[in-house]
């Protein structure tokens, strides 16, 4: 979803709100969107989304790892303190994922050794027969 045009569904996922909430923001003028009359869908430019987040910082703070990635990758945050917090959060998430992967790798390596040792023992039995 790294793009320059967002749907109400995209925005709702990033801000962790319901789709209807995003449509309400559009209706009351908090978020500027363009409506495709044919499909009846709203489309939000990244610039309008950036303006929204600048005026409504609490929604940028509520984003999960996925939303933070989108915000940072598309440079949708211009507040220094918020940007620092988002980067710190991303680093914590990736470090946690790295640690979890290290544990999984260790377990797989251990299991591989068990399998190899079992197979070697099995081969020795056949050779001694």
Q: Which spans of ≥5 residues are poorly predicted at pLDDT below 50?
A: none
Overall mean pLDDT stands at 78
Assign a percent range to the helix content.
over 70%
Gross geometry: elongated
Which structural class do the helices and strands define?
Answer: mainly alpha
Main sheet summary: 3 strands, antiparallel
Q: Give me the side-by-side strand order of the main sheet.
A: 1-3-2
Q: Termini separation (Å)?
A: 61 Å
Proportion of residues in extended strands: 5-15%
What is the chain-wise order of helices and strands? Answer: EHHEEHHHH
Q: Treating each run of at least 4 consecutive H or I residues as one helix, how many helices?
A: 6
The whole-angstrom Rg is 24 Å
Number of separate domains: 1
Q: Give the tally of β-strands.
A: 3
Descriptive key words:
single chain; 129 residues; mainly alpha; 71% helix; elongated
Short précis:
This protein is mostly helical and 129 residues long. It has helices at 8-15, 19-28, 46-55, 57-61, 65-73, 80-128; strands at residues 5-7, 34-36, 41-45.
Structure overview:
The model has no long low-confidence stretch (mean pLDDT 78). With 129 residues, the protein is mainly α. Helix content is 71%, strand content 9%. The protein is built from 6 helices and 3 strands, in the order βααββαααα. The chain has a 3-stranded antiparallel β-sheet with strand order 1-3-2. It has one domain (5-128). Helix 5 (65-73) crosses helix 6. The protein is elongated and about 70 Å long. The chain starts with a strand and ends with a helix.
